[in-house]
């Protein structure tokens, strides 16, 4: 767990920013299901950078999926309306 890592690396002397960095990184990686894999952040600078990149990347992914879905839905609606006009 991330608490064990803090205790191993910093002992009982870890500052609050270190604790928040580890916990925020853990929450972001877990929440956005990007996983830890073989390569993971090892210090607070990498953790904040990874967390920000994961948040930005997830926003871009959500935007593009929404845009593609909207485009396909609009295309199908236009085809359906054209079929109704042709039937009339």
Write up what this structure looks like.
The protein is mostly helical. 78% of the residues lie in helices and 0% in strands. Helix 2 runs parallel beside helix 3. The protein is rod-shaped and about 80 Å long. The termini are far apart. 6% of the residues are buried. The model has no long low-confidence stretch (mean pLDDT 84).
Query: N-to-C SSE series?
Result: HHH
End-to-end Cα distance: 66 Å
Number of E-type strands: 0
Overall shape: rod-shaped
Alpha-carbon Rg, integer: 22 Å
Number of helices: 3
Low-pLDDT runs of 5+ residues are: none
Task: Let me know the largest β-sheet.
Answer: none
Rounded mean pLDDT is: 84
Q: Helix proportion of residues, in percent?
A: over 70%
Assign the structural class, choosing from mainly alpha, mainly beta, alpha/beta, alpha+beta, or little secondary structure.
Answer: mainly alpha
Instruction: Kindly estimate the percentage of residues that lie in beta strands according to DSSP.
Output: under 5%
């Amino acid at each position: 767990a991330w608490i064990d890592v803090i205790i191993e690396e910093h002992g009982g002397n870890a500052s609050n920013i270190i604790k928040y960095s580890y916990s925020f990184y853990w929450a972001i990686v877990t929440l956005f299901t990007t996983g830890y894999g073989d390569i993971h952040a090892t210090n607070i600078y990498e953790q904040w950078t990874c967390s920000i990149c994961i948040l930005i990347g997830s926003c871009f992914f959500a935007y593009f999926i929404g845009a593609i879905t909207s485009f396909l839905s609009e295309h199908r609606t236009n085809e359906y309306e054209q079929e109704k006009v042709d039937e009339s």
